[in-house]
Amino acid sequence: MRCAMDFGLQGKNALVIGGTKGLGRATCELFAQEGTNVIAVSRHGDECAALAADLRDRYGIRTAGIACDLSGSGRSDVVREALAAFDTLDILVNAAGIWPQAYVLDMEEEAFRHTIEVNLISPFVLCRDFARYLVDQKRPGKIVNVVSQAAFTGSTTGHAHYAASKGGLVSFTVSLARELAPHGVNVNAVAPGIMDTPMIHEVLKTCREYYCQRIPLGRVAEPEEVAYSILFLCSNKADYLTGITLDATGGMLMR
Question: Which spans of this chain does the record mark as coiled coil (predicted)?
Fold first, then answer.
């Protein structure tokens, strides 16, 4: 039987971007276990609806799903739609992202732009809209942006555009934390290393040993292991933390 610590998340309302797969889905699951109401955002409406129904049935929480292509203008409606569903919001987690592969010498400009669009501009828009709501309503809140160890080490495997987008998100997180601290809003980041998620599952089938050799703990993370870091930063146990990046990399980052 799981002995739960009280994270102060009971009855809170969380908006999880990229909530139906990988780290986002694991985060939704942990929120639900803590009694947090969850709105999951994904490109696929059927996946959002299925996850919302599953969490509601198993945990008795309020749930909703929002379908949105984060590379398009619909992302500007997400916070408004979430408020229409729940009336209030307390937490935003930006866990969506893409991980295309191309070495710089072979990379098309459009591929670089699209990666920045999804991995950096979309979190900016969602953070901005969520922060406007919190400041306008004089509500405290928590924002967690999912970055990457690649933001600090770069990429050697053809993901320079991904690393650049995540590096930008780290800097944006720090700046937003400085701006929102006077308003009682905590803004932090979590930097995963290598996780066994749908985004890299096919790569791990052939390159798992290569990646494990780069991880001091010697193994790839399960999404839930990283999701606990997000849960902590959203909890009342992290009320004095803002502007940090929590490394959840199995030792790939040691700073």
Answer: none
